[in-house]
Structures are given as structure tokens and as C-alpha cells.
Design goal:
Structural class: mainly beta
Length: 115
């Protein structure tokens, strides 16, 4: 869930949190806080960067930290349809560093439909 705050006309800052259930080298959950910065571009396009983080105090089990960050470009040809591409890194660090995992680390592309 993100709460938006318009800065100038072309810039938007959203702050919020999300819960993550993790099944990587053991089970755990994390309450992550973070935000998204969006820059509106011409032709129904926007550039964005977002990041969420949970320290060990907001995670269960042997999780030391969880971080999820991405940058990308989104095009909305219709109001409820979006096409997105970018780069994402999602990491889970544990007290035992041999159990650290990188869930996502690379380019991605996708289509979304809102209703």
C-alpha cells in the first residue's frame, strides 16, 4: 500500500509498506517500508525508482534484512493497461551469510491490467 504526495507537476513521491512472506533457505516474513519516485514523461510514459527495506527487527526467523529495489519505465496505452520494463534486485540476508539469497537480480518486462 502506497500513499502519494505530489511534489511538482511532473514528479510524484509515494510512501508505504508491504508484507513479504519468504520461502528461501527457510520460512520467514518481513514488514517492509519504502517508497516510489515517479517522473511523468510525454506520451503516457513514466520513469520510476522504488525501494523497500526491512531490518531484522521487522522480520521473523533468522532474517537479518530484506531489500527490494527496482528502476523502470512504464507506458500506459490505455488508462487501465500498462507495459513495464526495468531492473529489479530483491535480496534476503540471514544471520548465517551462507543462507543469503538473491531472489531477483536482473531485467524484467511485464504487462498489467487494473480493474
Amino acid at each position: 500500500m502506497l500513499f502519494g504526495l505530489p511534489v511538482p507537476a511532473l514528479l510524484r513521491l509515494d510512501l508505504g509498506g508491504k508484507l513479504a512472506y519468504l520461502e528461501s533457505a527457510g520460512y520467514a516474513s518481513a514488514a517492509m517500508v519504502g517508497g516510489r519516485l515517479t517522473i511523468d514523461l510525454p506520451a503516457s510514459t513514466e520513469l520510476f525508482a522504488q525501494g523497500f527495506y526491512a531490518p531484522s527487527s521487522a522480520a521473523s526467523g533468522s532474517v537479518k534484512s530484506v531489500s527490494d529495489s527496482m528502476v523502470g519505465l512504464r507506458w500506459s496505452p490505455l488508462k487501465l493497461v500498462g507495459v513495464e520494463a526495468g531492473y529489479r534486485v530483491f535480496e534476503v540476508k540471514r544471520n548465517d551469510s551462507q543462507r543469503d539469497r538473491s531472489i531477483a537480480d536482473g531485467a524484467y518486462a511485464g504487462v498489467s491490467v487494473a480493474f
